[in-house]
Structures are given as C-alpha cells and as structure tokens.
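FIELD: query
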Amino acid sequence: MKYVSTRGKAPVLAFDEVLLAGLARDGGLYVPETWPQFSAAEIRAMRGLPYAELAARVMAPFTAGCLTEAEMKAMATEAYAHFTHPAVAPLKQIGHNQWVLELFHGPTIAFKDYALQLVGRLFDHVLKQRGERVMVVGATSGDTGSAAIEACRDRAAVDIVILHPLGRVSDVQRRQMTSVLSDNVRNLAVEGTFDDCQDLVKALFNDLAYRDAMKLSAVNSINWARVMAQIAYYFAAAVALGAPDVTVNFAVPTGNFGNVFAGYAARRMGLPIERLVVGSNRNDILTRFFDSGVMKAEGVVPTLSPSMDIQVSSNFERLVFEYVARDGGQVERLMTEFRHSGTMTMPDGAWAAMRTLFESHRFDDQGTLDLMKKLSRLTGEILDPHSAIGVGAGLKAELRRDAPLIALATAHPAKFPDAVMAAMGHRPALPAHMADLPHRPERLDTIAADAGRIKDYVSAFARARGRA
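FIELD: result
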C-alpha cells in the first residue's frame, strides 16, 4: 500500500514512512493511494471475532508491504489487552434500533485510546527497525493529548510535547496530561484556542529544515495511522448488528473530523453505511457547511463540549480531496482560500454529493444539557456532553427506521464532571485507576501562541534529552 498527499506535490510514501511523517511535506495530509475493498463474504467472516483480531484484519491492507496481518494482530492484542470491558468497544441499546458504541474503556477513558494505544506500539516497532528516535509534537482540544502521552510515556525512541489551549480543557483532561511526569513528556498550555495550537504544530511541520533537524512526528489525526485504527470500530459495530446484510447509520460528535472520516473510509471499503450524521456544538462550522456548501470560520466560543471547540477541522481536507476527484491542485486552492479569507466554497457538484451521505445538527450548551437530562431519564445512561450531542444529532436526522443508528460515545462522563453536575445534579465518579487524579502533582509550562517560542522550547527539550 502506498500513500499520496491531498495536495499532490509530496512524495508517495509507504506506510512506515507515513507513520513517522504525519503531515505531508507539501502541507497536505496522506491518504491511501487506493481504498482497499472487503467483499460481503469477507465482512461476514468478521462476525464473532475478538476486537483485536477484527481490527488487525481491517487494518492489514493499509500496512501491506511494511507489516503482516500477524504482526498487526500481535500489536492490537497487546494494545487492547488492558481495556476495561471484555468487548473493548461494546454496544449498548438505548432505544428501538438505536445504539451507543462505548469508546471510553481505554486507559484515558476517551475514544482516542483506540487509535493511540496501537500507534504507540507502531512507533516502537518501526523505530526499532530503523534505529531512530522521533520528537512527537501534537495539539489537543482535550482528549488526544492524554491518550498520546499515555501511549508514548517512557518509550525510549519517542519524546513528546503536547500543546493544549490554556483554560479551555476540562480539569480532568488537563490533569490526565500534566500529571504524567515521565522524562520524555512535556505539556504546554498555549495562550489561545485549539485552532491556535493546531496552527502552531503545522507551522513547525511546514518548516522543513526544522522538521528534519528535530525529526518531528505527529500523533494528531493528521497522522494517517490514527484514522486507520479508528476504522476498525466502525466495522466491529456494524458487523455486530448484522452487516453486511444490514445497512447501518452512524452519528458522530465531531471536532477535527478524523473520527467521522474514519466512518467515510469504512464505507469506501465496503461497509454498508447509509448516512453519517455529524454532531456540532455552538461552534457549528461543520453544520453550517453541510447546510450551505460554504465553510466560514467564526470566533471560537468555549462550551461544555470543549473537544469540539474548533473552527478549522484538519481532517476535512481529506474529505475535500475525495469529493473533488482527488485533484490535489484544487484541494490546495480551496484550502489556501480558506486560510487567507476564512471562507471556502465547495463546487456545487461536490457539495451535493457530500449531502447524499452526510448531514449535520447543532446543539448549544442548554440544548446539550437538555439532551443529557432526557437521555438519562429515558435510558438510564449518563453521557458526557460530546456523546450526548452525537446521540442527539442522530435522533434529529431523517433516517430509515429499519436501519440501526449507532451513536459514538467518545468519552466517559467523568471527564466532564461540571457538565454532568449541571445536567444531573451530581458528579460522576472517576474509574478506579484514576481515582487519585485530583491529587497527583502536575507539570506544565504556559507559553504564548508564537511559533518561534514553541520551536525554542522544543529545541531546548531535545537538547535536554540528548537529541541535539
């Protein structure tokens, strides 16, 4: 399997090179040169498989030429061995033909664990073969950071710096990152928004001389390996409910678009998905886009669902690439237009084609709290604000009643205790392995949203680690 950039100017790479590169050297994102296909019989054969074995089977075509399916199975088995539910990604019924896919049974109780616990092991495997070390630099709106740190902590070949927006993640999310005191881990609280953090990371990667000198690598969902690992749970959920002989719908609370793009990828690979429903909060750039065909950035407003407080969804570029017939030049023009003007208008045909698969619905904070209360009253389930938005978006969508709706529950409610308190009048308890989190010592540095300052910080960290 080879990979191409969405902007068409970067070298074509193999999987191991894409894993370490993260962002393409032309500023684009890597995608498979061709989408692998599973027949109906091959999807049926996934029924009853343990999650790790199913995941390895789904991912094997993407690593072909670099890793065997047996190697992927061994890494996946190790990655998911300590998840707290034996099904790894269990389904829970909440209504007639309505289901929640619980993606919070990993070590940091958020869906990012399903990819990053595997990606950490992929880094180890590839770097050991090459005899290399990397400096991982990433931005987080809340959950990626803790999952990435948990996956990379204490690994000999990886140092990691994570940027998060100062005061714009929950206390639990922050402490999950800043209480990891491993020598190879650093946290930066950036005076700005998540979009600022994301822009700073891209600025470091787009400085090719600096990128090469520091051997930068990425764990954000700009890294294809993240998306690849997330495709697996779409297959697992759909197969459990009867696919390929049953068509399904998914509803996904969406910020950076990587999670829902994994659903798009699963559909391209043969999974019978009829609709992908995007859930947005008050920062509703994606809902406005799917309603109008025009993407227009506005100011980011802090909400009860901070992981979705985003105006520039990096992975959306991958979707644009697919819907403009993989024309890298057109993607570059559209993304440059958006970067310079804050507005991007999709060609009518491309937007109309998107609308046949995607729809989107928004909920402000009060609407989110109302959803959380209603779902608890009707089903007994306590959902975090992001997951509630996903369920709510799915319930608002116009879907066939005979096609199951699967809403992705992306975080444990204990990650957002203030929101649960506001909705339910009580705070959810942290899982046992995190019960002492509020009392763990923290380590972080606060920094201005300035690329030069970030480069100096990363360079100093590299020197301290004996890397420069």
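FIELD: remark
The two ends are 34 Å apart (CA to CA).
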